[in-house]
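User: I would dearly like some help making sense of a protein record. I have put the entry right below:
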Amino acid sequence: MNVKQAVALIRKHRPTKPQEFTAAGVPLEKKLEGHGVFREVAKVKGLPLVVKFPLAENNKKTGKLSYRSGKMHSTVEVRKIEELSKLRWLRPHLPQVHYHDRKSGVQVVGYCKEFDDDIDTLRAMGRLLTKVIAKTLGVTVSDIHEDNVRKGHTVKEAILIDLGY
């Protein structure tokens, strides 16, 4: 099976739980790929796809489980990807959304490997920031990497300390 066939099966069966993906013919890896505050992520076996499932949270008023925040998070993410995709040059830096079910909040996107270490992550972010600056402002800055970024006045601020190239 290839990505196109898997996505066709997902669209046809509209699974909302891991076991429903398996029943639809699109099995997931047993080990989770990861999770965040609003969703957990499972990789599709043998394909470069991941499925994002909203996590349940306890509704403080009713005491019942709710998926509302996870569903909203998925919908907002897809809308942002759609909006940012209007910039053709930014598309290679965005995840490919293959499927999104607004009702369940389930999302299927292309699998992206993690960087090997923080230095590689910082260097890739520097190249992306370089591109954003050039495309939006027309200013060429090509030396953004771990040696040329320092902390600002607060821990969350970054200062570019060498803009010579």
